[in-house]
Amino acid sequence: MTKTHRMLSLTTAIVVASTSFAFAEPSAEIVAAAKKEGMLTTVALPHDWCGYGEVIAAFKKKYPEITVNELNPDAGSADEVEAIKANKDNKGPQAPDVIDVGLAFGPQMKAEGLLQPYKVSTWSEIPDNVKDAEGYWYGDYYGVMSLLVNKDLVKTVPADWSDLTKPEYAGQVALAGDPRASNQAILGVLAAGMAGGAKAGKEAGEAGLKYFAELNKAGNFVPVIGKAGTLAQGATPIVVMWDYNALSAKDTLAGNPPVEVVVPKSGVLAGVYVQGISAYAPHPNAAKLWMEHLYSDEGQVGWLKGYCHPIRFNAMAKAGKIPKDLLDKLPPAASYEKAYFPTLKEVDDNKAAVTAAWDKVVGANVK
Question: What's the predicted TM-score (pTM) here?
Answer without folding.
Answer: 0.77
